[in-house]
Fold this protein.
Amino acid sequence: EPSPHLPAPENVEIYSYNFHSVLRWSPVPVETGSVLYTAHYKTGAFPVWNEMNCTRVPRARCGLPRALQKRRWTVLARVRAELGPRASRWAHAGPFVAERDTTLGPPRVNRVSATSDSLLLSVTPPFTPEPGDSFQYRVFYWENTTSTTKKKQEAHRTLFRIGDLKESTLYCFSLQVEFEGDFGTLLGQQSAPECHRTAIS
């Protein structure tokens, strides 16, 4: 029976970054004793609550089981606080769908090769692609002067060229991934600017 004196966890959410998802919540403050937490989940396809490998745990977070790491599944979660024999009411998060709700980080730049008129970029997506994934890269680049005029180009491959540049000139660029999924387009975070000088011909 829920205890009216033990508050339920607040700010319950499934947070996801690059398709790695975790259930988290704000710790419940109590004057004495240490609060433990129990979390359950269910999916849109099987609406029965299941244990989430987080029964009476002390920390205010719980990794989603491997079986739930499906990008298109609808996941709902609930968590309650427990203090001795007392338990709070359940606090709910959801519905969560990773392909719609994850935050995509910036692509990683592996290598930059400079010629007199171009920069050749080798990049890696911020997540491990699954078969059939459709995404492209947005590249913003500009001459490193007082001017802030940025140009944009898009590329589908992980090796691409920024061309028509001036020789022996410092250029900066920033990258972003655009993922096309069943739930629409996810736009990732932009990478920190990186600057490289073109070669002398």
Remarks:
- The longest strand covers residues 170-181.
- The radius of gyration is 23 Å.
- Helices lie at 98-101.
- The domain at 10-97 is CATH 2.60.40.10 (Immunoglobulin-like).
